[in-house]
Amino acid sequence: MIKFENVTKKYPNGFVGLKNINLEIEQGEFVAIIGLSGAGKSTLIRTINRMHDVTGGKLTVDDVDVMSLQGKALRQFRRKIGMIFQSFNLITRTTVIKNVLTAFVPEIPWYRAAFGIFTKEEKLKAMECLDKVGILDKSFVRTDQLSGGQQQRIALARTLAQNPQIILADEPVAALDPVTATQVMDDFKRINKDMNISVLINIHHVDLALKYADRVIGIRAGEIVYDGPSANVTDEVLDRIYKGKSEGVKA
């Protein structure tokens, strides 16, 4: 379980990203986070894996106080949480499978990482993850020869190789065309259901949020203004989320 208790995030320049957030997310949920640009959506998901530190309140994941973690304990904690970005964050001049194999680098001896030496088991695991997102046939193709949608699937396969309990996705389909975005969202949904991995997606496409997520969290000016089933999101709810501008908030 992910639990926010009166969590606040204030940046050194005075911007307030989150204001007294109280929230619980159970294992296996598919949650879409929606709101205006700058409302605090990215801040919310990035506090979960300590990409951003909270400045007030308490954030726990499986009863572990996230802010108490340091060094090796923090690195091990982050292994349980996959992160997907809009920009894919891939090594484009190498093959697809080598990108997925980078998921093992934090856990292998330095000399194997330095020389790109991976075991048969690690290679099989990487290929299994590529198969789960439908691009096993691209394993030995150079990454920069693939489409944006295929590259996002590589990023998802790399995350799966970590054996995560949670996947955080920060605008994962923002750079994709509508058809490809739907295909990538299909992958997220299938992984969520088949593997019981919690998926939290920060997303601008309200239609995709309502179609795929079981639960929607609406954020405006760093505060949660809606939290409930996607089926209950009405025009009135959307007005509440998107009306006006977010001031003093940094995503």
Q: Can you give the helix content as a percent range?
A: 25-40%
**Cα gyration radius (Å):** 18 Å
Beta-strand segment tally: 10
Q: Within the CATH hierarchy, at the fold level, what is the topology?
A: Rossmann fold
Tally of discrete structural domains: 1
Helix/strand order: EEEHEEHEHHHHEHEHEEH
Mean pLDDT: 91
Give the class from helix and strand content and strand pairing.
Answer: alpha/beta
The biggest sheet, with number of strands, parallel, antiparallel or mixed sense and barrel status, is:
6 strands, mixed
* Unreliable sequence segments: 245-251
The count of helical stretches stands at: 9
What is the spatial order of strands in the main beta sheet?
6-7-8-3-9-10
Task: Please give a structural write-up.
- The protein is of the alpha/beta class.
- The protein is 35% helix and 24% strand.
- The protein has nine helices and ten strands.
- Strands 6-7-8-3-9-10 form a six-stranded mixed beta sheet, sandwiched between helices. The protein has a four-stranded antiparallel beta sheet with strand order 2-1-4-5, with helices on one face.
